[in-house]
Amino acid sequence: MNLGLNRFAILVACATFFLIIAGALVTSNDAGLATPDWPLSNGQFLPRMVGNLFWEHGHRMVATTVGLLTIVLAVYIRLKEKRQWVWKLGMFALVAVIAQGLLGGLTVKLMLPLAVSTAHATLAQLFFCTTVSLAVFTSRSWIEARPLPPEEKGSLPLRYLCTAALVTIFLQLILGATLRHSATWDRHLPVQLVLAHIGGALAVTIALGSAALTVLRRYKDESFLAGPAVVALVLLVIQLFLGVAAYLTRLASPNEPQPLNPMIAITVAHVACGALVFVTTIVLTLRTYRVLPGEKVQSSAFELSGRQAKA
Ligand code: HEM
Ligand code: HEM
Description:
Blueprint: H1 3-28, H2 53-80, H3 84-109, H4 114-137, H5 140-143, H6 158-180, H7 191-219, H8 223-252, H9 263-291, H10 295-310
Helix pairs in contact: 1-2, 1-4, 1-9, 2-3, 3-4, 4-6, 4-9, 6-7, 6-9, 7-8, 8-9
The site of one protoporphyrin IX containing FE has 30 residues, from helix 1, helix 2, helix 3, helix 4 and helix 6.
């Protein structure tokens, strides 16, 4: 295990979270077209950061920093990491951040079309998920993890429950992004999409709630699994409250002269907390795959260790 590499991967993941907040601030302040220019801003590399340009150009600067950090991370992995699949994931992160930068430029050039802005919001979550996974794979707890006692025969394996929760959350993030980019602050949100997103919230609550509670029932003393399960449950409750609050403040926003607080703060917090729910579930899912191998592998691994103990 390389401590320096793991710390750097954690740094990149934290910087990506900050970048998601910076991006959400662009959308909530309706600052996406503060400059119609890209890659320069109003023909300049460093424009005066006034008005909405503060949010738009600020987001570009944070994105550039994260892009540079991702290049360093990919090289660092290449130099220090022996597992080839981790190299590949590092390269994937690099490709994703470049594609994300291009999508950001494209959405400005095309004047924020729904499809491109939604794709930009969705790829942001996938990129965050990649950097968090790199931090997980390079961590000591991952490398030193040992198999846990098998789950009861006939029960639904936790790895499937967690994967189902993960997929449901991802679909909900796409729905949320479509909803958010369907109407600027001065318009009302489309009712069908709001209803679909509420249905999605119910699905996420059932899928993630049952996965996390099952983890706590079967492995409550194993902090490797119980830790992310508890965090995911807490974040889910906060996210549901933020969702209702985002809806209520959005209802009032078209009557206001410009995007105002608390609408900005609450919608940005809802995007950020959505990202945290997603990555916590990824950590939980990856860890179930790590310590609870499939039924066949599991029984043979345990039979083997049993035979070794007898010998
Ligand atoms: C490279 C990594 C990048 C990441 C991870 C990222 C992430 C994000 C996120 C999370 C949002 C908020 C989406 C939402 O609230 O629904 C956003 C919005 C935005 N980003 Fe980026 N971004 C990146 C690069 C860029 C670049 C290079 C540009 C260049 C112009 C850009 C332009 C924008 C614009 C204009 C918006 C607002 C879109 C709208 O309001 O419709 N982004 N970004
Ligand atoms: C676990 C449940 C939920 C998750 C994971 C979730 C996730 C998200 C995400 C990630 C976005 C923005 C996506 C983006 O632009 O990148 C969003 C937008 C939104 N969500 Fe949720 N959401 C959940 C529950 C709810 C609930 C219960 C409501 C209540 C009605 C709600 C109302 C909204 C609204 C109004 C927006 C648009 C905000 C805006 O226009 O700025 N969400 N959701």
